């Protein structure tokens, strides 16, 4: 069977990397849109961001004459949420960026995980490329939300 897209395998590999990261062991990693559960204080969503229906955006094009293979570039949407009972926003903001730092670290090649930057071989490369911070005070305390983009390039 011909591979039409590397997106499904890449999203699955990204989730596996995040769930296997020791620095994210106290963060709930969620595949796709959330169910309503406000009891979790540290959540990382893959393939979902608030206020959008897009999980992944992708583009494909021929990589050379002859149409034997194609290049695929895509962006996996992600969202980090840190909430707490107190009203100190700086604590929640720092916590959200600590989680993002753990994501970035999990995507770096190490002796233990040499294929992490390729999402375990599913893409040629993947890296964090964008983010947006939102902050709000709720009746249950401060909340920091951080949208992020994981940009990927693959050959199919």
Descriptive overview:
The protein has 156 residues and is α+β, with helices and mostly antiparallel strands. The protein contains two helices and six strands; from the N terminus they run H-E-E-E-E-H-E-E. It is elongated.
Identify the notable features of this structure and list them briefly.
156 residues; alpha+beta; 6-stranded mixed beta sheet; 2 helices; 21% helix
Number of strands: 6
Morphology: elongated
Q: Profile the largest sheet.
A: 6 strands, mixed
Residue-averaged pLDDT, rounded?
Answer: 92
Low-confidence spans: none
Distance between termini? 12 Å
Order of helices and strands: HEEEEHEE
DSSP helical segment count: 2
Gyration radius, in Å: 17 Å
Please report which band the strand proportion falls in: under 5%, 5-15%, 15-25%, 25-35%, 35-45% or over 45%. 35-45%
């Amino acid at each position: 069977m011909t591979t039409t897209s590397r997106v499904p395998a890449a999203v699955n590999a990204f989730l596996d990397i995040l769930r296997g990261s020791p620095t994210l062991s106290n963060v709930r990693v969620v595949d796709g849109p959330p169910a309503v559960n406000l009891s979790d204080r540290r959540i990382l969503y893959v393939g979902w961001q608030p206020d959008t229906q897009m999980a992944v955006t992708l583009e494909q094009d021929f990589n050379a004459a002859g149409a034997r293979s194609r290049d695929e570039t895509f962006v996996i949407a992600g969202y980090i949420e840190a909430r707490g009972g107190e009203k100190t926003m700086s604590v929640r903001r720092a916590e959200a960026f600590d989680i993002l730092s753990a994501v970035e670290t999990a995507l770096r090649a190490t002796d233990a995980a040499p294929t992490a930057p390729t999402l375990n071989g599913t893409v040629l490369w993947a890296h964090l490329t964008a983010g947006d911070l939102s902050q709000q005070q709720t009746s249950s305390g401060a909340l920091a939300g951080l949208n992020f983009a994981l940009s990927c390039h693959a050959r199919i």
